[in-house]
Amino acid sequence: MSDLFNYDSISPWIPYLSKGLGYTLLIALLASILGVAIGVMLTLMSRHKQLSKISYFYIDIFRGTPILLQLSIIYFAIPKLVDTLVNDMMHLDIAITLSAFSAAIITFSLNSGAYISEIIRSGINSVSKGEIEAAEALGVSKYHMYKDIILPIAFKNSFPALMNEFITLVKESSIVSIIGLQDLMRRQQIVTSQTYMYFEPLIVVGIIYYLVIKVLTITGRKVEKRLQYD
Fold first, then answer.
1. Residue 112 and residue 32: Cα distance in Å, rounded?
2. CA nearest 38: which of 105, 112, 148, 121?
3. Which of 94, 166, 191, 223 lies most in the core, judged by the most C-beta atoms within 10 Å?
4. Would the pTM count as exceeding 0.85?
5. Residue 156 and residue 24: Cα distance in Å, rounded?
C-alpha cells in the first residue's frame, strides 16, 4: 500500500486541496437558497391557471437536459450571444463576460429550482385538507394561508428531500472545474499536472467529499428527528 499511496509526496498538497472545499460548499449553499426561492415561485405559478404552463415548461427544460450542458450555455454561449446582439444593435465594441463563479451560481440555482419545485409541490400535497378547510372557515386569506400554514408544513414534510438535494448539489458542483473555478476537483487537476500524481490527489479529494457528505447526512437526520417532535 505504501508503494501505491505515497503520503509523503501528497501531504504538502493536502491543505491546498482542502481549500477548494470552500468554493464547493459556497456554491451548494447559495444555489440551495436561491433554488428554494425559485422552487417556491414555480410551485405557486403551477397552481395558477395562466402561469402553470410557464412553470411546467421551465421544469421540463431544466430537468430534461444535463447540468453540464446548462453550465456551458450560461458560461460560454449566452455572454457571447448578448455581446454580439448588444454590439451589433448599438454599434459598440464592448466585451461582455460572466465570471465563472457567477455562472456556477446561476446554473445551479436555476437547475436546483426545478427539482426543489417538485419537492415543495409534493410537500404541499401532503398537507391535510382538514387544515386547509379549517383555515378557510376562519376566513384566512390565501396569502396568509400559504405563508403561515401550507408552506411551513410543506417544508417540514419535505425536509429529507430538500436535504438530499443539497447533498446532491455538493457533489454535482464538481463540474465547475471545467470553467476554471478552483473547487476540490479543479485543485486535484492542478496538483496532478504539477506532480504527475494521479492516484493520491483523487483519493484525498474522495475522502474530503465522503467526510463532508457524511457530516451533512448525520446533521440532516438529527434535524429531521427534531422536526418530527415539534
1. 7
2. 112
3. 191
4. yes
5. 26
- Enter the C-alpha cell of residue 41: 415561485
Q: Which domains does the chain have, with CATH numbers?
A: 24-180 (1.10.3720.10)
Count of all residues that appear for the chain in the document: 230
d(CA 61, CA 142): 29
pLDDT digits (tens, 9 = 90+) for 131-154: 778 877 888 888 888 888 888 888
> How many angstroms separate the CA atoms of 158 and 228, rounded?
12
Residues 54-81 have a mean pLDDT of 94
52-58 — which CB contacts under 8 Å span 24+ positions? Answer: 55/117, 58/114
Q: What is the DSSP letter of 174?
A: G
Residue type, 138: L
The span from the CA of 181 to the CA of 22, in Å, is 11
How many angstroms separate the Cα of 212 from the Cα of each of 17, 60, 164, 207?
14, 31, 13, 9
**Which of the four pLDDT bands, split at 50, 70 and 90, describes residue 216?**
very high
Question: pLDDT tens across 190-212, in order?
Answer: 999 999 888 999 999 999 999 99
Task: For residues 112 and 125, give the distance between their C-alpha atoms in angstroms, rounded to a whole number.
Answer: 20
**Dist CA 78 CA 96 (whole Å):** 10
Question: Do residues 109 and 166 make contact, with C-beta atoms less than 8 angstroms apart?
Answer: no
Question: Is residue 2's pLDDT more than 60?
Answer: no
